[in-house]
Every structure is written in structure tokens, then in C-alpha cells.
Amino acid sequence: MSNTIKKKQKDITQKNKEEELEKKIRKLALTIDEVEDEKLVVENQLKKALADYHNLLKNSEKRDEMRFFQVKRKLFEDLIPSLDAVRMAIKTGEEIKFEEKSESWKEGVIAVLEKINRSMEEIGLQQYVPVRGDSFDNEIHEAIATVEEGKKGKIYDVVQPGYILDEMVIRPARVVVSK
């Protein structure tokens, strides 16, 4: 065989090898693209799963906070009437003028009541006692009676204090309003 034919065969073989390599390269490039696409899909799925997990945690924390708030609210709603009764007894005791021995007992009861109030404040319950002459606000006051005396729409007298738990009114202050 002549050198020219050998060279042409070599060139054809070389060209065939190049074409095969180009086909393999294109096939590998397609495979890489497919893998990259799958990688993006998996990354997006992981990001979504992580976001769902964080949302689940937040919602769980909110539910736990709400349950805790509801338990506190129920506890204080049950406790407030007893505190009102103790306050009423103290007020009545002041009006009735007891002997000296009874006076020290009354002071002890007042001290216990103040301690209970401080404990409740630490847990988030604030007692709200409106001032006579304040404007009536139906968001935080409950009018239980009206009188003809005083300025219209102003608080004439406070019958019971109100209570606010974590910035939410759980019992409005019960007041007498001037009309």
C-alpha cells in the first residue's frame, strides 16, 4: 500500500475516533446536564422540606404559647373572684372598725393579698384600677351603673379593678359612669 492510502486510512481512522470521542463528550455533557437538573430538583426539595420544618417549629411554638396563655387565663379567671372577695372583706373591715387585735390580722391579710398580686404580676397578670374622672372606655371598662352626677362619659366610681393578662383584657374594670 502506498503511503498516501495509509495516510488517508489513518486520517479516516483518526476522524472516526474524533467523531466517536465527540459523541461520547456530547453524551457525557447531556449526562452532566441531567445530573445538574436532578441536583437542582433535590436542592429545591431539601430547601422546601427545611422551610416546612421551620414553619412547623414556629407553629408548634405558637400553639404551645397559646395553650400556656389559655391555662394562665383560666387560672386567673378562677382566682380573681376570690381576690375580689378578700378585697371586699378588707374594705368592709375598714368600715366596721375592729379591735386592735383584729387590726393586725387585717394588716396580715392585706400583706398576703399584696404578695399574691406581686406573684401574679410576675406571671403576667396586671391589675388595672381606673381613676375617678377618667374617660370611660368600653375596651377596658364595664359600666355596671350610671349616675346623674359628674361629667358625662367620665368614671364616677370604681366597683372592681380590671385585669390584663399579657396585654389582653381578661376582665374589664367594673365602674359607675356619669351620664
Question: What's the short story on this structure?
Answer:
By secondary structure, the protein is of the alpha+beta class. 66% of the residues lie in helices and 17% in strands. Helix 1 packs antiparallel against helix 2.
Descriptive overview:
This protein is an alpha+beta fold. The protein has a domain at 126-179: Roll (Nucleotide Exchange Factor Grpe, Chain A, domain 2), CATH 2.30.22.10. Helices cover 66% and strands 17% of the residues. It is built from 2 helices and 6 strands, in the order ααββββββ. The protein has helices spanning 3-96, 100-123; strands spanning 125-128, 141-147, 155-160, 162-165, 168-171, 173-178. The strands form 2 sheets. Strands 1-4-5 form a 3-stranded antiparallel β-sheet. It has a 3-stranded mixed β-sheet with strand order 2-6-3, with no helix packed on it. A hairpin with a 2-residue loop joins strand 4 (162-165) and strand 5 (168-171). Helix 1 (3-96) packs antiparallel against helix 2 (100-123). The longest helix has 94 residues, at 3-96. The protein is rod-shaped, with a radius of gyration of 41 Å. The N and C termini lie far apart (126 Å).
Task: Note the topology.
Blueprint: H1 3-96, H2 100-123, E1 125-128, E2 141-147, E3 155-160, E4 162-165, E5 168-171, E6 173-178
Parallel strand pairs: 2-6
Antiparallel strand pairs: 1-4, 3-6, 4-5
Helix pairs in contact: 1-2
